[in-house]
Amino acid sequence: MGAAGSADDINAMEIHHWYTKFMKECPSGQLCLHEFKHVLDLHGLTPEANSYVEQVFHTFDMNKDGFIDFLEFIAAINLVIRGKIDQKLKWYFKLYDADGNGCIDKKELLSIFAAIQAINGYTNMTAEEFTNMVFQKIDVNNDGELTLEEFINGVEKDEDLMELISKSFDLSNVLKAIQNGRRNSV
Known about the structure:
two-stranded antiparallel sheet, 10 helices, about 5% strand, mainly alpha, disordered N terminus
């Protein structure tokens, strides 16, 4: 990093802190899905919530080897803590696009939002209401699918939708759980 790094980047002391936490929780240096759930105290999840946690894990697993290594972990932390809104929206899009076809359909958004509600308890609106509202506001060509461009442009232009998505899909609580050592010692 050195002098070329920006003030927004995670600094060396923070990286050392996160590395110590990561290695304490995962001495092998490779976090598998089971360990990911254990570190975050995510047990006894509904099928929807479990599906969401798996989708988050697979989104963080950038090289798709079935593990989150420290570089993938620190990249995820940097995105969640300091990522610019367009970076976060791209990540959200990737998370919602469960089948990886480059578009979000209503079924995918409904499923992810229901899963998130099961984990974080967000209940200001039903998953169906949320999905219908999102598609009504930002599916500009009314084809029942959101492209990355439609998603980013639509959310950036609608402050209420931006706030709702940011709050309901915020992963900072996941990082706080790791940072605070929420994992129970055996």
